[in-house]
Amino acid sequence: MSEVTRRDFVKGAVAGGVAMATGGLSLGEGQRPRRPNILLIIDDQHSPRAMGWTGQTQVRTPAIDRLASQSVNFTNGYCNSPVCAPTRHCIYTGLHTPQHGALMNDKPMRPDVRTFIAQLNQAGYTTANIGKMHNAPYTDRRDFQYVLNHEFFTSDGGITHYGPWLRAQLAKRGLKSQHKRWSKPVTEGARTWLQDPKCIAHINWMPEDLTPEYWITQQSLAFMKDQAANRPDKPFFLHASYFPPHHPYGPIKKYADMYDPADIKLPPNYDRAGMTRWWRGRKATSDLPDAEVRRWIARYFAFTTQLDVQIGRLLEGLARLGRAEDTIVIFTSDHGDMLAEHGRFYKGLMDEGSVGVPFMIRFPGVSKVRKESALVSHVDLPPTILAAAGITPGAELVGNDLRPLLAGKAWDRNRAVFSVIHHRLPFSNMMWRRGDYKLIASPGRRGTDQVNYKLFNMAKDTYEMNDLAGEAASSAVLKRMKDELMAYWAPLEKLLPAKMPPSKRGPAPNFTWPP
Q1: pLDDT for the residue numbered 207
Q2: What is the pTM of this model?
Q3: How many angstroms separate the CA atoms of 355 and 81, rounded?
Q4: 451 is in which domain, residue-wise?
């Protein structure tokens, strides 16, 4: 495969409605930006257990494992709302969902909330998002200077940047009719997309170099090369945002063939009866047998390996440009995937498989490489990124600058992390974790003030199989955790609207330069 050129990126950007700015003063051959570049890699729905470095021997992730060997790997990393758009806005803003306002997918962010991307722009960074954004509306660039959206279609049917490129490539290769036959059952509606066996855990027929993740990597490499050639005096912030391994778990055959469903081991907390209830609760007409559960997991692992190859390409390209030593690399996911734990798939829960995420940071000259058990969450990323860029984080940010922890310095090991999701208002699930203990709160029947609780000792029960909430010996811990959670939640709850805001969808983005 030929190396990505600056012309490739410019052509891709213009095709997507982005005009490039190529100004900037050169620092000369071999010189580096004074402040670090920042590469934030986010994939979608990546189980915190589905990486080789964690000890999971069934999945192959050599590139992620290699990055882990050079990073601080947080074994207790959490998202702040386990669904796509809300948690991404927690990352963009450093705030919790009631503060930034994007309570669920397709819900708009508050107009008065600032992103850390805007602050990086003001400080002289070149900022780019390539891949998934999941904004409401899609025309909102979230302050990024350059935007290339990966989606073939938006939630309102509008085509985005990857779509026109893909259609042109398919036409060149005589594959347009084949793609149309494949894409219709995938895209015709959520019921089909989430439940039809033709769609879930399918094998994608598409050539690897036409997949969204390949395109995202190609455009990211072109952006970094263009930045090095034309704006070497300016540091960059690149958000490379991938769709895999999100359902419907559709790898290409090359990777699907690496995993035999018969070899897949179900998780120790697998609940057969729970899987039946979950599947039928989705209005499916039949049960989901164990053989099918294994097939889904095998396809998920294959999709993860397919993505891992692209992450490897991206990091190798960064190294070829000579930028690895002056670039902070952060890898995380927007949320996890239950992967059959407790008889569930997908997200939206406060169980570890859903709310836990991969979370690793390679900060050359700062990171003391190790596995780190301190509790961290996505709202810690903005203050860390801003501080690394020489910008004082705002007092409104709820997270902490992780640089001392990365360097192995003193750290508050008793700090708590919080997550909330709003399938209903004021909340459908909340999590509060401090130390070894994790509390999950869920509302009772509608129209009542009842709240149900689960309590787990995560040091002894990583798969959450022993609920301590009903045990007399844990009553003091339960009360303390409940009191802490509700004290933290009370001011956040006051920020919520009386009812869920309407969805705010817009046409496909048509970005121009300058912003």
Answers
A1: 93
A2: 0.89
A3: 7
A4: 426-495
